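User: ok so my PI wants both of these folded by tonight, can you help

Assistant: No problem, let's get them done. Here's the first:
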Amino acid sequence: MSKALIAGAMILAFGVSPVAAGHAAPGPAVDYGNGCVIDPGNAQVTVNSLRWRCAAQSMEIYTAAQAGAVPAGVKNGWVTASSAVEPVATALWIGKTFYTGPDGGRLMNRVTGAGIEAWPADIARGRSRIDGETTWALDYAPSPTPQVYDEIREVVPGVWLGYSWWPGGGQAPMLSFVLA
């Protein structure tokens, strides 16, 4: 019997599909305590945890993650921890639109409730300011605005955790954010 026929029979009989060859099934959820749960099988649990319950653990979560896949298309965004810019950031910024291929590309930030695209950036693999490991670096040099630097990693499939720095702002990020 062919693999396709077996897979089809499994879907009809059990309502599940086999994991594609070469792709691992999602790992177990990781509970960092205080309601901070990173669940590879449930992106919404991960997003909610990162937004509301993981401020103290976010750096540990970030450094445990790999760069992962580059985002593509429209991604909603939420500021998760910030300095004095949080009230402005949360009132204006709603996410990013990624125009990417497997090696990166470009993006536009989405602002206001209307989702207006502004502040372009290039995205490519780079070295993290946090730990020197591979990350997706967001370079705002194409933008006429201050040259903010962002980096993101995919913490579970379809969910990225990121940090932003002001130019010349030192080692401490100005804010963290999540995209999904």
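One down. Here's the second:
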Amino acid sequence: MPTNISVVSQTGGIKETTFVGVPVSPNRGDRHNEVDANNDLIMEWFWNGSLWLSRSLHQQSIHAWSGQGVLIGGVIGDVSSTTDNIPFSQGNDYDIYLYKIHGTFRVLSGNLSATNYWALQFRNTTSNLQSINITTGNGGEATDYICKSSNAINTKYTKLNTGFNIVFTKNGSAPNIRAPIASIQYRFSRT
């Protein structure tokens, strides 16, 4: 049987309940501490009304391109291929609740446009799950240094033994880019 520990939120005086052990009928905002056999904390969870989500919002950035001559942390080599997979190693222990994806790179020459752009895709091994078309940066810039973020996605994706990939895909006659970085923000999820 779960152990209840009541706490009062410091914002708005909303009463929240934290459980050690998974509650049978949680209420939105309830918390659950996952512990191991020694009662050491593994992960803190909250109930969003339909899923248990990790309280921590995680972020992972991927700087390396396989086969493109870009070193980890470096800016060597230009990227001009039509697609390249970047492995994302999380997602084998829990499902992923994807919050946002972000793409950053430098356009070498020319401009991005609605027909000539790079797409950043969050994928599993068989299909594209989320995508943003990088036709301009967050500030409307179409050349030089570009940073593009998705809107909030807030979607759960089931864990796979092979994990997930981030893919940059060239569309039309998009300009070559340098030093691409893909990052994702996510929570772990469980039902």
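Residues 4-11, 66-78, 80-84 have pLDDT under 50 and may be disordered. Residues 95 and 159 are 5 Å apart (CA to CA). Good luck tonight!
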